[in-house]
Amino acid sequence: MSHFLLLDGGMGAELQRRSARRGGLWSAQALIDDPDLVASVHEDYVEAGADVLITNTYSTVPSYLAKSGLENRYLELADLAGQIVRRVADRASRKVLVAGSLPPLDESYRPDLVPPDEEARAVYGNLTATLLPYVDVYLCETMSSTRESLNAVSAVREVVGHDKPVWVSCTLSETPGGGLRSGESVAEAVAAMRGLGVDAYLFNCSTPEAITPAIKSLSALVDVPIGTYPNLLMIPEGWTLDNEVPTGVRELDVADYVSFAEQWHDLGATMIGGCCGIGPSYIRALHEKRMQVRW
Question: How do residues 198-235 score in pLDDT, each as one tens digit?
């Protein structure tokens, strides 16, 4: 196996594609209604060649669960998500890592809605402790601002110290070269994290066109692994999961995805996967390319 780590793809869109169930709880709904469906998505990513599975904890946070009055179950559901993915990883015929997702605690892509620091760090700390028995690494993902990143990483370090690696993945402005969704530059985001011992930096839930210049900038700023996992969405200003602002969907076929991945690898990325809309067929194609060129 090369040093290249292949991450899994999106969970929420796959769950929706495989089930008629819909609702404001999004990917957490499957943990309540059909945990086996969550396991089957993880299994398909292992079969496609993924080296890293991400816990289905993106929407097991109080703000999402409160839509159905279930906010007090967030740790119960996070624990279930950890159990499910750990079993799948342990059954694999090769080593598969589990990354514990620590997501935005209100809306994704909205630095203006990041909760107060003390409140955020308490929730992140609880999630960190709950996922501890199941994960190999913590992934603070879809971070829209340095403050959001600092809250997540600081909480992990408070709970586990440096006993487990911590990866930080930021979401980027729709405008290539525009930095984070907050408007902060990639350099500012990295500078804010110095001293916390971040073990890898990534970008996720962003368009491929925005990722390419960001990876180029990041590669010159850090000496730890870097990577990315793009989405198929175009996110307009002011979007939330429940409002009437529509997202756009980008046309990105499997061949285009692999081509972008090659560019990112050439720029220094050694961790690549997929986010919203990037399913097992994309991950399988990138795995086949990886084996072909022996990354």
Answer: 999 999 999 999 999 999 999 999 999 999 999 987 77
DSSP label at 240? Answer: -
Each as own residue / partner, the long-range contacts of residues 61-67 (CB below 8 Å, 24 or more positions apart, any chain) are 61/103, 61/104, 61/105, 61/123, 61/127, 62/105, 62/123, 63/105, 63/106, 63/107, 64/24, 64/25, 64/26, 64/28, 64/241, 65/25, 65/28, 67/24, 67/25, 67/242
Choose among 225, 294, 217, 209: nearest CA to 259.
209
Asked if residue 77 lies in contact with residue 115, where contact means CB atoms within 8 angstroms, the answer is: no
| pTM of this structure | 0.95
29: Cα separation from own chain's centroid? 18
Cβ proximity of 56 and 102 under 8 Å: no
DSSP 25-75: TTTHHHHHH-HHHHHHHHHHHHHHT-SEEE-S-TT-SHHHHGGGT-GGGHH
Characterize the bridge pairing of strands 271-272 and 137-143: unpaired
Cα radius of gyration (the chain): 17
- How much of the chain is helix, strand and coil, in % rounded to 5? 45, 15, 40
Task: Summarize pLDDT for 6-45 with one digit per residue, the tens.
Answer: 999 999 889 988 886 656 687 999 999 999 999 999 999 9
Encoding tokens for residue 271?
């961790």
Cα end-to-end span (Å), the chain: 8
Q: Which fold has domain 5-293?
A: TIM Barrel (3.20.20)
Amino acid occupying residue 66: A
